[in-house]
């Protein structure tokens, strides 16, 4: 049994506590990289939610949970002689210094576009075979699409004018409409994907984040739909028994009641 201790703000104390848990706690001792990898994703999304809601007290807690996973995975790797937490800290410092020669070296970067272009060039010098290499396959599709487009744009593969983006979007919409009439399920899926990809690109052209935008719309839909449920409950009605017209009336009211 470990001795009693109080929390501190010292990073080394956190590393020590995780080491103790790996020895003394049956649950912590049993975990592997694979068994808690989904928990890491969950904690990251909880941090994102705290950012979206501007709940900085919650963000502090969630960043702590993310940090715990960094330390925990590093501890497990250390036990297998793969790497240590010191290696993790060294490698990220090394990367930051190497990829910011305009800060820690003698190169110049006049604006963020030049910084982004230099970043991709440096990554290629590090041995990357593709500009798109390193974008996780597990990312949500909207985020992954936007990151691919951003990386391609960083090296000059982008529409010069928005009018061309708009033309491409209209082209994809027309192709999707056409395939809905005569196409196979595979063709419909392909054209729908092309349309979504073009929508992400159109938003990116105006510095709009597709994932953030859709997440906000999801929240808006939830708020409005739950308003409908609340109003029907007050009217002592079951949502499964009312007409679409009744729900639409409450939906319209919800636009001013929940979005103001």
UniProtKB/TrEMBL annotation:
Q: Where is the NTP pyrophosphohydrolase MazG-like domain positioned along the sequence? A: 31-104
Q: Which domain of life is it from?
A: Bacteria
Does the keyword Transport belong to this entry?
no
Among the Pfam families in the record, one is: MazG
Return the SUPFAM superfamilies for the record: all-alpha NTP pyrophosphatases
**What NCBIfam families does the record point to?**
mazG, PRK09562.1
Family named by the database record: Belongs to the nucleoside triphosphate pyrophosphohydrolase family.
The protein's name in its UniProt record = Nucleoside triphosphate pyrophosphohydrolase
Whose protein is this, by species? Fodinibius halophilus
């Amino acid at each position: 049994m470990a001795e009693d201790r109080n929390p501190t703000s010292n990073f080394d104390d956190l590393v020590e506590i995780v080491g103790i848990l790996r020895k003394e706690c049956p649950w912590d001792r049993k975990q592997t990289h694979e068994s808690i990898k989904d928990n890491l994703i969950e904690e990251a999304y909880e941090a994102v939610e705290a950012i979206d809601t501007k709940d900085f007290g919650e963000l502090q807690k969630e960043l702590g949970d993310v940090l715990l996973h960094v330390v925990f995975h590093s501890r497990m790797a250390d036990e297998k002689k793969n790497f240590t937490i010191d290696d993790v800290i060294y490698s990220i410092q090394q990367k930051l210094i190497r990829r910011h020669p305009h800060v820690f070296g003698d190169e110049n970067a006049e604006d963020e576009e030049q910084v982004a272009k230099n970043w991709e060039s440096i990554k290629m010098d590090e041995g990357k075979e593709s500009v798109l290499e390193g974008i996780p396959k597990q990312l949500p599709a909207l985020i992954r699409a936007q990151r691919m487009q951003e990386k391609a744009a960083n090296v000059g593969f982008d529409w010069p004018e928005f009018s061309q983006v708009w033309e491409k979007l209209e082209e994809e919409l027309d192709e999707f409409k056409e395939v809905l009439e005569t196409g196979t399920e595979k063709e419909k899926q392909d054209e729908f994907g092309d349309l979504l990809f073009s929508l992400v690109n159109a938003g990116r052209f105006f510095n709009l984040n597709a994932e953030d935008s859709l997440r906000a719309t999801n929240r808006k839909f939830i708020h409005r739909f739950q308003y409908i449920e609340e109003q029907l409950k007050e009217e002592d009605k079951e949502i499964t028994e009312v007409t679409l017209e009744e729900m639409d009336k409450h939906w319209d009211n919800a636009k001013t009641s929940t979005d103001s």
